[in-house]
Design goal:
about 160 residues; mainly alpha; 4 helices
Length: about 160
């Protein structure tokens, strides 16, 4: 493989252009996903835009779930203390020391928390790989999608509102 600094890297399925460009022909995530026509490129950009919206929606739902899970954990801890005879009052110095600062492990909360984080990490890595194509249309679709998604859903994550 001849690597000249003036040309893209030669790959088995074509050339990798290592500068920002708008032309198609870049492999996106899978060997079979190579948008080459204008229509295929437009569809790819729309799909990535929607995926970026989904990422911001997922972040908002995760933040709302964290608030909900925190309240449920406090209720569970209060119920546990009440069934054990109350223990020291929270106003006493002994009660202040015995109050838990980390919520207990609740499988239904913590497994869901881990799954949501895993999906968000997967989306982040997928966006990183898409940006590495150096296709300006794909990069703009990600940035605009994340911005629009944050505009639409960011207030839920910032305020911790719980949707019922």
């Amino acid at each position: 493989m001849d690597m000249n600094m003036d040309m893209g890297m030669e790959l088995a399925s074509g050339q990798m252009i290592t500068y920002l460009h708008f032309q198609g022909g870049d492999v996106l995530w899978f060997q079979g996903w190579v948008p080459q026509s204008h229509g295929a490129m437009a569809g790819t950009c729309i799909g990535i835009f929607l995926l970026a919206l989904f990422d911001r929606w997922l972040a908002a739902m995760r933040a709302a779930a964290e608030v909900y899970w925190g309240k449920r954990a406090q209720i569970a801890l209060a119920n546990k203390l009440n069934t054990q005879g109350g223990g020291p009052s929270p106003q006493s110095p002994m009660g202040t020391l015995s109050m838990r600062t980390i919520p207990p492990f609740i499988p239904s909360h913590d497994i869901a928390r881990g799954l949501l984080h895993g999906v968000q990490a997967l989306l982040t890595f997928a966006f990183m790989l898409a940006v590495m194509t150096f296709n300006a249309g794909i990069i703009l679709s990600i940035v605009i999608g994340l911005g629009v998604g944050q505009t639409l859903f960011g207030r839920y994550a910032a305020s911790g509102l719980v949707l019922h």
